[in-house]
Amino acid sequence: MNVIIFGPPGAGKGTQAQYIVNKFNLHQVSTGDLLRSEIKNRTDTGKEIEHIISKGDFATDDIVNRLLKKVITNSNYRNRIVFDGYPRNINQAENLEIILNSDNQSINFILFLKVSRDILEKRILGRVTCEKCNKIFNKFIDSNEIDNHPCGENYMIKRKDDNEETIINRYDEYMKKTKPVLDFYSSRSYFHEIDGSNKIEQISRKIEQIFKV
Ligand SMILES: [Zn+2]
Fold first, then answer.
1. What's the CATH code of the domain at 204?
2. What is the distance in A from the centroid of ligand 1 to the CA of 115?
């Protein structure tokens, strides 16, 4: 089976992708890794990519499609690919189908791990640390534990974290950019939206159920 997995920062996409790769013996394909490997191996395409990046541009869809075709049609990976962070736009989505069709393959499952901005904010911004024992809590989720914590409430501090704003900005940007691609896929019978606010294990079980159908 071939799987596409989508999810904004904070939804646990990386964790779940890793999980299904191991559990179902799949091969994870990230375009970033493909590009980096070409550069590292000093291939002609790698040199081309380096040249583009040095000018501050992104690798073209044409290059990405070429590299993907190589992986998708590789007999070691055929029909056992997890696409991570791809496709990023409609052009790439259409090309992916052309490549798959030309090799008698298809997309079997599209997973979208959804987490609302509100929940992401609560997860990130609610983080408090006990200064005495360094235990981390979330004031929106663990209010009982905080009230009953033996060190006492006076030690609970909110540590300043510059990453917080970055994560939320990345979330907004991801949702904006990915919306057209999700719209492109969402009406398909094999598109599955999964509640990314659940616990990691629950999400994994849910994905396993989907794969069994
Ligand atoms: Zn404590």
1. 3.40.50.300
2. 30
Q: How far is the CA of 126 from the centre of ligand 1 (A)?
A: 17
Task: Say how many Å lie between the CA of residue 132 and the centre of ligand 1.
Answer: 5
Tell whether 143 is covered by a domain.
Answer: no
Global pTM value: 0.82
Q: How many domains does the chain have?
A: 1
Q: Is position 107 within any domain?
A: yes
C-alpha 122 to ligand 1 mean position (Å)? 21
Is 128 a domain residue?
A: no
Q: Is residue 135 part of a domain?
A: no
User: What is the residue-wise DSSP string for 109-153?
Assistant: EEEEEE--HHHHHHHHHTEEEETTT--EEETTT-HHHHHT-TT-G
- Burial annotation 167-180 (CB, 10 A radius, 16+ → b, else e): bbeebeebeeebee
| Rounded distance from Cα 197 to ligand 1 centre (Å) | 26
Sequential pLDDT tens for the chain (213 residues):
999 999 998 788 989 999 999 999 999 998 889 999 999 999 999 999 999 999 988 888 899 999 999 999 999 999 999 999 899 889 999 999 999 999 999 999 999 999 999 888 888 888 899 999 999 998 888 889 999 999 988 899 988 776 778 888 889 999 999 999 999 999 999 999 999 988 889 999 999 999 997
Distance CA 213, CA 210 (A): 6
Residue 148 alpha carbon to ligand 1 centre in Å: 10
